[in-house]
Amino acid sequence: MTNTLYFGDNLHVLRDHIASESVDLVYLDPPFNSNANYNILFKSPEGAQSESQIEAFEDTWHWNDSAEDAFDEVMRSGNTDAFTLLRAMRDFLGDNDMMAYLAMMAVRLIELHRVLKPTGSLYLHCDPTASHYLKLLLDGVFGATNYRNEIVWKRTSGHSSARRWGPAHDTLLFYSKSDDFTWNPVLQSHDEGHISAKYKTADINGPFMAADLTGAGTRTGDSGRPWRDFDPTEMGRHWAVPKKIPDELVDTTNWESLSSQEKLERLDDGGVIYWPKKEGGFPRFKRYLTAGVSIQSVVTDISPLNSQAQERLGYPTQKPLALLERIIAASSNEGDVVLDPFCGCGTAVHAAQKLGRQWIGIDVTHLAVGLIEKRMKEAFPALEFEVKGRPQSLASAQDLAKRDKHQFELWALSVVDADPWKGGRKGPDGGIDGIIWFKPDGKKTEKAIVEVKGGATGVKDVGRLAQVMEREGAKIGVLITNQLPTRAMERDAAAVGVWENEYTGRKHPRLQIITLAELFQNKRPDIPWVDTSVAKKARREDTTEQGKLL
User: How far apart are CA 492 and CA 173, in angstroms?
Assistant: First the structure.
């Protein structure tokens, strides 16, 4: 299998390109406007609409014809349990943003269940806004008996809230496709405070803590009988031999057939029983300090990404690489296929590649796909992977311009290595679609303004770009057009003049017009010394400011 990034709606990609029972692990972090006023999410379509932070889904998560179609698709899917739950939710919630989200998720979860191998697992990452509804849907799609864990990740150190407990965690819902699912023991580091507080004693085998050898309540079997004059019944307890025994120290031959007293003798022979110096003190079990503790369902040792984190790419919802590494290590093996259908900035596929897994990433925004492509090439320079779904010809680019103006703009910007203005968010752009940062003398940073037009263009577009260049102090402006420029457009562009690079002596047209056809002929803006490190720094600063606004 070739590692692959898909640009497109994950529902269509799953149905058209991903074979049944071909994936070992699915991780998904579906976007949702959890920061909106909670009550707004439940208003009818006639009421106020929530403003989605995830621009590509601003229409998807509203109750409309698409949501109704998704609801009907679940009805026709043959999964009666999933549809019964979805219909009950609709009766309870009504037709609103939340219900649209659940309908869209239900039809996708059915497809994700189809592509999973019988030994596969799924982790759905969400916040508490919708996690309870999603868990019911997962019960319907995967079966309640295949629920494995609710994992809580402490995603922030603190969050003030005036009239409720501060929301500081995300939820991960862990389901398997069957009882025979892949699982690898994974250890996390011990807390240093716990070690110093509990493991104060040591012997030749290392530090240990003295743990109980008895449990609460009396028993009538051998676990209730005395051993070496110690009678647990007198204390209202019984012998409770630990299930995890250091077999490198203790002879565990035929262990399950031994009585409690025989097991205690074996433990003592192995030197793993601690005898208190206090007279009459009950013997205890030496629980030695291990290399780590098994991963727990409450994750507090992986911090969220701060604004200065080296791996930070500017996505407000970006998850730490360590969190995805832990999930992938536990629920897949080397060479297995990991799928992320909402791959965003690509943390899951990055972790999969780092751990020797194959991977598939899907995202509906070209900005995300381009970002992941750059991320993977920088992290793994020799890595080969395919990118499918984005325009490969003039006709397909023109088709994208008709279907989705915003995604067309983002694609065109990526072709000329321009950073999308304000992170590619929809809304007023002030005549700027993107910026190309460059250092004409290797020191001072300059910028070129990029404007993309997929429809009709004319002289007025050239004039507007010239005005924006003047306003922004940009040395160069680039107008990408679907149509051939008219002679008047070429005349007005030439009238803007040329910019001379004092360092090289070369002259560059200040306002350049490039057509879509020329992009596919590998024509690029005439800009000196494009410095990608400058672009990255500028992008980080810009997205940090956006994060503050969100």
Answer: 59
Highest mean pLDDT of the ranges 93-97, 330-334, 436-440 = 330-334
First to last CA, the chain: 39
∠ Cα 550 299 152 (to 5°): 65
Domain 4-38+115-187+299-388 top-level CATH class: alpha beta
**Global pTM value:** 0.72
| Per-domain residue ranges of the chain | 4-38+115-187+299-388, 192-288, 394-549
Q: Tokens for 303?
A: 């911090």
Which residues, including other chains, have CB under 8 Å from residue 31's CB and lie 6 or more apart? 52, 53, 54, 56, 57, 317, 342, 344
- Could you give the CA distance from residue 485 to residue 265 in angstroms, rounded to a whole number? 92
Count of H helices and E strands in the chain?
16, 24
Rg, Å, the chain Cα set: 30
Q: What is the pLDDT of residue 305?
A: 63
Q: Say how far apart CA 467 and CA 149 lie, in whole Å.
A: 57
| Residue keyed to tokens 């889904």 | 57
Sign (positive or negative) of CA dihedral 448, 449, 450, 453: negative
Identity of the amino acid at 331 = S
Residues contacting residue 248 through CB under 8 Å, at least 6 positions apart = none
Q: Which of 238-242, 243-247, 305-309 has the lowest mean pLDDT?
A: 305-309
Lowest mean pLDDT among 25-29, 211-215, 428-432, 435-439: 428-432
- Report pLDDT digits (tens) over 355-366: 999 999 999 887
Buried b vs exposed e over 33-64: b needs ≥16 C-beta within 10 Å? bbebeeebbebeeeeebbebbbbbbbebbbbe
For the residues 81-95, what does the mean pLDDT come to? Answer: 95
Q: Which CATH number fits the domain 394-549, given the four candidates 1.10.8, 3.30.450, 3.40.1350, 2.90.10?
A: 3.40.1350
CA distance 120 to 347: 20
